[in-house]
């Protein structure tokens, strides 16, 4: 009973197709395939976030980050080290397998930068809501005319 039929909801809603698509994809979740590399998502300010991924063994040249249409994609592909360098590894416990991790970003979330230090990839995100979409106060103008009584000085 892991499958839910959301098709009746599609008929009665407009503009929520992305939300239902995300719910559908939760049913296809394979925990084993999605566990590498481990990551954290933290809030660093009111509209600022940071995604931190543990990418031990990967360098700048092995990683690529792409932001496209509300999706942040991080790919890691280790270059073959056997070229020109003879290696005699007795035990390999540090995973260096290729990966691709996707994050769905909310509307108006932008990637500000990324840094790699001590085996951790930090991706800085900021949510910037356009001025036209921010809440604003509307003044109420009444149609009633104000009458001011003038007192005559004696």
3D architecture notes:
- The chain has 154 residues and is mainly beta.
- The protein has two domains: 1-30, no CATH class; 33-130, Immunoglobulin-like, CATH 2.60.40.790.
- The protein is 11% helix and 31% strand.
- It is built from two helices and seven strands, in the order ααβββββββ.
- The radius of gyration is 27 Å and the shape is elongated.
- The termini are far apart.
β-strand number:
7
Distance between the termini: 90 Å
Succession of helices and strands: HHEEEEEEE
What's the Cα radius of gyration? 27 Å
Derived from helix and strand composition plus strand pairing, the structural class reads: mainly beta
Beta-strand fraction estimate: 25-35%
Integer count of domains: 2
Give the overall form. Answer: elongated
Biggest beta sheet attributes: 4 strands, antiparallel
**Helix content percent band:** 10-25%
Regions with little confidence, pLDDT below 50 for 5+ residues: none
Spatial strand sequence of the major β-sheet: 1-2-7-6
The number of helical segments is: 2
CATH fold naming of the largest domain? Immunoglobulin-like
Second-tier CATH architecture of the largest domain: Sandwich
- Give the mean pLDDT: 77
CATH class of the largest domain: Mainly Beta
């Amino acid at each position: 009973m892991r499958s839910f039929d959301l098709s009746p909801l599609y008929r009665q809603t407009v503009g929520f197709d992305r939300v239902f698509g995300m719910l559908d994809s939760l049913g296809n979740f394979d925990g084993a395939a999605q566990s590498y590399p481990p990551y954290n998502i933290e809030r660093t300010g009111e509209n600022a976030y940071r995604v931190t991924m543990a990418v031990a063994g990967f360098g700048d040249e092995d990683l690529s980050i792409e932001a496209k249409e509300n999706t942040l994609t991080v790919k890691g592909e280790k270059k073959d080290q056997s070229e020109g360098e003879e290696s005699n590894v007795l035990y390999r416990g540090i995973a260096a397998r290729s990966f691709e991790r996707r994050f769905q970003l909310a509307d108006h979330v932008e990637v500000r930068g990324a840094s790699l230090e001590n085996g951790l990839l930090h991706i800085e995100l900021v949510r910037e809501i356009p001025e036209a979409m921010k809440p604003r106060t509307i003044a109420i103008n009444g149609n009633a005319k104000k009458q001011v009584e003038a007192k005559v000085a004696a």
